[in-house]
Write a structure and sequence with these properties.
The complex is a heterodimer of chains A (159) and B (182). Chain A is mainly alpha-helical and 159 residues long. In chain A, 65% of the residues lie in helices and 0% in strands. Chain A folds into two domains: 54 residues; 58 residues, no CATH class. The longest helix of chain A has 50 residues. Chain B has two domains: 100 residues, RNA polymerase sigma factor, region 2, helix turn helix motif (Rna Polymerase Sigma Factor, Chain: A), CATH 1.10.1740.10; 82 residues, PhyR, sigma-like (SL) domain (Butyryl-CoA Dehydrogenase, subunit A, domain 3). Classes of the chains: A mainly alpha (159), B mainly alpha (182). At the A-B interface, helix 1 of A face helix 2, helix 3, helix 6 and helix 9 of B.
């Protein structure tokens, strides 16, 4: 302790003072604050746990929905389906464009046929039917004609 | 700072049924030396009170993980010194930003606390406040708290030779300050 005596003329006193009663009230005040902080910390950790569990659940649900949506519109043909077909006729189609086009035409013609049926039921609406038919192109008209020939409900001669 | 008291306090802190009682005992035993250690470093009473409270709250929270490898007062000094270091760094940044140079410290020292104090004590404290952070902490722990270099090494995590150098540099700077200002 020799080196700490080099300021002997100053001593160990300091010019600082603590407010009266500070040390008496300090332990109780600090204990209360420590208990409150601990309770708050526990509550927060429970809240964090619940939130993270909810976030995980939401994420899993999202993943589930996402995968269901992805797989629902497209069902890949199984190997068994391909084997059941005659050789060279596979259900796996490389180019989807023609199918899409055909579907569109069929949908249009089916709609117009429906419309046509409704219009036939009412003689007053003959003009409307003519208007609809005039809107259709040749290809669509041919399809309707083909349907008319093969459909036993429309073509009376087939009944 | 008796070893047996420390052992029983640590045992109480680890027992949930006696934790609060042990905590009060610990505070009654160490609140004053730790308060004065903090006060000498940060000067303001309000800051010292906040840091002292924070120190004991940390002890309360982590008392279960205290392994007893070191003495409990070394642990308390380490926590409070770290808190002071953090506070001093923050204050240094504020002073840098606002351009104040020790005015805050001088103001504290020449306030009401100073009415009955000798001028030399104020000069001595101003000289200590002029020191770099590490030298200030080493000087205070050695000069006022009379800790050995081994104990200071545990508190600060520095080597003994570096602490001795820091103490020597600090005392030289203080002597020079006193010659220039008294």
């Amino acid at each position: 302790m020799k080196e700490t005596n080099e300021f002997q003329h100053i001593g160990k006193e300091t010019p600082y003072l603590a407010p009266a009663g500070f040390f008496e009230t300090f332990p109780e005040k600090t204990l209360q604050k420590a208990i409150n902080r601990e309770q708050h910390r526990r509550k927060n950790s429970i809240r964090r746990l619940i939130l993270s569990a909810a976030a995980c659940l939401a994420f899993l649900l999202y993943l589930g929905i996402h995968f269901i949506q992805d797989s629902a519109p497209y069902s890949a043909p199984s190997l068994a389906d391909n084997e059941a077909l005659p050789a060279g006729k596979s259900t796996i189609v490389e180019n989807h464009e023609p199918i899409k086009h055909m579907t569109d035409v069929r949908t249009k013609s089916a709609q117009s046929a429906k419309l046509e049926g409704k219009n036939l039921a009412s003689k007053d609406k003959t003009e409307e039917l003519n208007d609809v038919l005039s809107d259709l192109n040749d290809e669509e008209l041919q399809l309707i004609a083909a349907l008319y020939k093969t459909d036993p409900f429309i073509n009376e001669s087939l009944q | 700072m008796t070893g047996t008291d420390d052992a029983s306090i640590v045992a109480m802190l680890k027992d949930p049924a006696q934790k609060d009682k042990g905590f009060i005992l610990l505070m009654n035993l160490y609140k004053e030396p730790i308060y004065w250690h903090i006060r000498r470093l940060v000067v303001s009473h309000e800051d010292a009170e906040d840091i002292l409270q924070e120190t004991f709250i940390k002890v309360y929270r982590h008392s279960g993980s205290f392994r007893g490898d070191s003495k409990i007062f070394t642990w308390l000094y380490r926590i409070s010194t770290n808190e002071c270091s953090y506070h001093l760094k923050k204050r240094k940044n504020v002073i840098k930003r606002t351009g104040q140079i020790n005015g805050e410290v001088s103001g504290e020292l020449s306030g009401n606390d100073m009415e009955n104090s000798k001028e030399i004590l104020v000069k001595f404290q101003l000289a200590i406040q002029e020191l770099p952070r590490k030298q200030k902490i080493v000087f205070n722990l050695r000069y006022y708290d009379e800790l050995s270099y081994e104990e200071i090494s545990k508190v600060m995590g520095s080597s003994i030779s570096s602490l001795k150098t820091n103490y020597h540099l600090a005392s030289e700077k203080i002597k020079k300050y006193l010659i220039d200002h008294v």
